[in-house]
Amino acid sequence: MDQILPQQLMESIYQQLLPNIQIESISPFNPVQVNYLPKPWETLGSGNYAAVVYHPHYSDLAVKVYAPGRSGYKEEVEVYRRLGSHPAFSECLYANDNFLVLKRLYGTTLYDCINLGLYIPQQVIEDIDQALIYAQSRGLHPNDVHGRNIMMFNGRGFVIDISDFLEQEVCSKWNDLKRAYYIIYRPIIAPLRLRFSYSVLDIVRKCYRCLNSFRKTFNQIN
User: Fold this and answer.
1) Which domains can be identified in the chain, with CATH numbers?
2) Gene3D superfamilies, from UniProt (predicted)?
């Protein structure tokens, strides 16, 4: 998996980024917080376990750094090993010391698309469906696929977080999102060009999480 990367990039990672970056994970249900990032590094995004940053001189590469105390690093490396090369996923080019160097994916998350009022074509949904089928064919179990973990670029869909693809638990998030796309987004939100603030989206996200938790409990009882 490890590939030869620019020496100056690796020096910057080990001498500048890793000794100085300050990442805090307050809750496993919310993105980690980057409290300090040494210049010239810039933040790309944050997941529930790690932060993703990049160096402006190597903008086609992204570095994912796990927060202290958060597990999942070894599992994510294994997922990328199994995935290999696929157009809807990133690729891991290097992994060591609780960080990964990834091929950078460009685009806008579906979560941000709803906020910005950007149209989400059906091709994006179909791309994700095919990508998840491919992942299953590689012995993986697509998990935690939701609006923050899906990106759109030039009308095509990409999965940007595969860290939970070794989980055996059945996850309904993608099917629920897809159902909402066809029942609510296409007939109502898209034609009316509706936009939703992040505060509203955050309320929807928290309500869904509560309902999903209740559904799991109900299914266990029955």
Assistant:
1) 7-103 (3.30.200), 108-221 (1.10.510)
2) Transferase(Phosphotransferase) domain 1 (1.10.510.10)
